[in-house]
Amino acid sequence: MMMELSADESAFRDAVRVFVAGNLPAALRQKVERAQHLGREDFLAWHKILHAKGWIAPGWPVEHGGTGWSPMQRHIFDDELATACAPQIMPFGLSMVGPVIMNFGNDAQKAHYLPRILSGEDWWCQGYSEPGAGSDLASLKTKAVRDGDHYVVDGAKTWTTYAQFADMMFCLVRTSSEGKRQEGISFLLMDMKSDGITVKPIRTMDGGQEINEVFLDNVRVPAENLIGEEGKGWTYAKFLLGYERTGMATIGRSRRQLKEVRKIAASEPLGEGTLSDDPKFREKAAAIEIDLLALESLVLQVLAEQSAGANPGPESSFLKIKGTEIQQALSELLLEAVGNYAHPFVPEALEHGWNEEPIGPAYAAAAAPHYFNYRKTSIYGGTNEIQKNIVAKMILGL
Amino acid sequence: MDIMLSDEQRLLKESVERFIAGEYGFEQRKSWVEGGAGYSPENWATFAELGWLALPLPEDHGGLGGTLGDVAVLMEGFGRGLVVEPYLATVLLGAQIIADAGTDAQKVDILPRVAEGQMKLAFAHTERQSRYDLTDVKTEAKAGSGGFTLNGQKSIVFGAPDADLLVVSARTDGGQRSAEGLSLFCVAPDAAGLTVRAYGTQDDHRAADLTLENVEVDASALIGSAGEAFPTISKTVQRAMIALGAEAVGAMDVLNELTFEYLKTRKQFGAPIGAFQSLQHRAAEMLMAHKLSRAMVFRMAKASADDEALAQAASATKVQIGQAGKFVGQQAIQLHGGIGMTHEYAAGHYFKRLTMIDALFGTTDHHLSSYATSSFISS
Ligand SMILES: Cc1cc2nc3c(=O)[nH]c(=O)nc-3n(C[C@H](O)[C@H](O)[C@H](O)COP(=O)(O)OP(=O)(O)OC[C@H]3O[C@@H](n4cnc5c(N)ncnc54)[C@H](O)[C@@H]3O)c2cc1C
């Protein structure tokens, strides 16, 4: 697959490539390559390296610490990082709450939180979903009642990614039950060390531990942690959804996985040759590659429009739907590629520092867990059904 | 009434479904899976009492002489409960091979003990390089004075960690991928030179990789005649594929039940999510996938009484349940949303079992190719 790059863009890509090659610790790269579980320190180590270089927030305006890159440069950057097996940059601070604070926060909030997001000092988690409020987020019940210069928050959030690592949580809470449901929602920032917050891990079916329940039991949150106005939380949350959606396409990560699965196929014996010689396998890989090419073309178009000043609207749903379909198709192909060695479940092999002789080829250990885990991609961030509803309603007017 | 089943099969179905509903709760299963053997020895004794271990074994040797159709009824029930006891490894693979090719002495020694629940077997055949090619065997057995010496490696041997006897395939002759020259041997799990590396599998079964380094066995360990094991191996595996198809059908049924119930009870936007038409259509397709698979598997279980048709029936079954199982499994998770992703909830475990059944004895793609090379519906 190719991307048509200008001379400047090629030079930029080379500079990124050289930097990553020289600065990404080998141990981290290997964990990502083997799809092992990354811990807080792993994510933060890479975060800090990029921060020191001034590259941690390419999406941010320069005055807040952004890089001033063009959308195309940002795309190249993401692609290079993914190709090099760099750990994913957590979106919760940089792509989610950061832009909300920037656009709707007051000066004190900006001055306090933005530098801490950049440096990685605060790990953020997203407290939106509740047991009763998933796709229908506006039905959320967690209550925040004003008491002097505090809000008292009572309720429960769930599916909260990496809450166990988090210092802070941005939260949608109900401050009023009058009028339209959406208009009673406020956007509140919480210190995870506050009294009354309990984080309970939820194990996913693949054995991983990335999501949690977060119980909020009369948590006292300073009123100064309210973003913008009371009752406007829904508007801010919606703003956030339109932000940086091109990242949802995960082109770079998928491209790397395609490469990886082809590499695996080349070492999987099949008859006299390898799985790479199997026309069926090759066609399946090719079909995914073509899907990826089409998706990347759409991303490039969206980026070009963005450079020309347009705001990515509901079209970003296409990127989420197709991007996750491709990720899931790749996880299926990987599972098929490893053949019989998909069966053994050796959870320790998914943790770093496991030095025993692998059962079968080392690359096989993560194949099935990865496939199981990636069913999440069509569920989180607004399910793919909800994305299609958005397209039908917002674009087609149905 | 289930017109696909005979009266006896209907009784068997009731009995296994009663056992699963009454004794094989999801939480109990969890405690067995996490316990020492990875399954319940008490259940194994119950299987023996109820005649399930004897079901397909020959009547002359303590068996009930049941058909593959009977086995399918039992396995469908097992699929409903995600049964982890090593039934496939012991009865459908190990004992079936002894019944098919074993010497009289082996049958007398082994089969009644299997039927009574006194002996568990495992079939060690697949190797690291063999993928789904049943002829691909590198492990060698050299004839010597009074016996054989085995050298080689075996992969993903289900049931091996707790087996009392291993049925091991090895070459006494022929090239790596020749159907000629394959032989089968009884090997004790504590034989000198045998290393067993045990592990759990994605779907809570237990398996092991084996290394055989100058493992000596007596001449009496040879199962059947030297060099002629392939027909037994392929027939046994093909029958097991159809039995697994029945297990998948049972698993799909429960997964559908869970999902359809959830569609009725989970409310979002002021309505049960089952009120959304896109999900109604999905559910209709899931039900259809199950119905087609069930009808097909029970038909193929009968068709396969004929050896000629067995290979085609097995591949067709594998393709059907592979595709249907994947669709039902993925959609069940999707329609549950976040809760479907959790380890706590049953749906994910059914999804995983369906996924791993597809990966067992050859994937959908593999069997589509096999089937395409000679069609079942002959011209
Ligand atoms: C791994 C993972 C990580 C997550 N991380 C976070 C996080 O960090 N923070 C956070 O706040 N949330 C997080 N979530 C929650 C996620 O956003 C929700 O799971 C998602 O919004 C769906 O909600 P639900 O699980 O309640 O499913 P439901 O909304 O109950 O949906 C169940 C099914 O019904 C379908 N459905 C619902 N409404 C409609 C409709 N109108 N039309 C058609 N179909 C419909 C859905 O598509 C789905 O298939 C995470 C989820 C997962 C799985």
Quick tags:
heterodimer; A: 398 residues; Butyryl-CoA Dehydrogenase, subunit A, domain 2; Butyryl-CoA Dehydrogenase, subunit A, domain 3; 3 domains; 14% strand; globular; B: 379 residues; alpha+beta; Butyryl-Coa Dehydrogenase, subunit A, domain 1; 4-stranded mixed beta sheet; binds flavin-adenine dinucleotide
How is this structure best described in words?
The complex is a heterodimer of chains A (398) and B (379). Chain A is an alpha+beta fold and 398 residues long. The model of chain A has no long low-confidence stretch (mean pLDDT 94). Chain A is globular and about 75 Å long. Chain A has 3 domains: 7-89, no CATH class; 122-231, Butyryl-CoA Dehydrogenase, subunit A, domain 2, CATH 2.40.110; 247-395, Butyryl-CoA Dehydrogenase, subunit A, domain 3 (Up-down Bundle). Chain A contains 12 helices and 10 strands. In chain A, a hairpin with a 2-residue loop joins β2 and β3. Chain B is built from 11 helices and 10 strands. In chain B, the strands form 3 sheets. Chain B has a 4-stranded mixed sheet with strand order 1-4-5-8, covered by helices on one side. Chain B has a 4-stranded antiparallel sheet with strand order 2-3-7-6, with no helix packed on it. In chain B, β2 and β3 form a beta hairpin. Chain B is globular. Chain B starts with 6 loop residues before the first helix and ends in a 6-residue tail after the last helix. Chain A binds chain B through residues 129, 132, 134-136, 139, 158-159, 202-205, 207, 211, 268-271, 275, 280, 335-336, 339-346, 359-360, 368-369, 371-372, 375-376, 378-380, 383-385, 388, and chain B through 126, 128-129, 131-133, 155-156, 177, 197, 199-202, 207, 209, 267-270, 273, 276, 278-279, 330, 333-334, 337-338, 340-344, 348-349, 351-352, 355-356, 359-360, 363, 365, 369. Flavin-adenine dinucleotide sits between chains A (126-129, 134-135, 159-161, 211, 376, 379-380, 383, 385-386, 389) and B (266, 268-269, 273, 276, 278-279, 334-335, 337-338, 341).
